[in-house]
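Subject: for your reference before the review

Hello V.,

The reviewers asked for a structural picture of the protein, and I figured it would be easier to keep everything in one thread rather than splitting it across files. Below is the amino acid sequence we used in the manuscript, unchanged from the supplementary table.
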Amino acid sequence: MDMYIELGLATDFEQFRMWVANRFKSKETYHAVSDLKMEPEGVVLLQMAIAAGNTLQSGASHTGKGQLDVHGRELFAVYRYALNTMLEKGLASQADVLNKINLMEKTIQELGE
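And here is what came back from the structure prediction:
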């Protein structure tokens, strides 16, 4: 809930919550918990970043080439929030986070019509 207040999110994220919840059954979650010994908060952040990233890469939140709609802009804020929080908690490196954000920015610019 704090994230919604901190980021000033306005659009409905019920579908996003369902996507994240469904991702807990994924092989990435199993790997994070069993192999990496990641704590629950880290797993949630990881799945938030993956779910937001997958949605952004689908192009569904674009209004035109390189243009995100309101929900897409908020998804990108969630994506950055999840990755930056992982960085703050020592669950990701700065280089990895910057690389992922830069790649997502490039992908966003290339998508849309």
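For the response letter, the relevant points are probably these. The chain has six helices and two strands. The longest strand covers residues 62-64.

Happy to draft the paragraph if you're swamped.

O.
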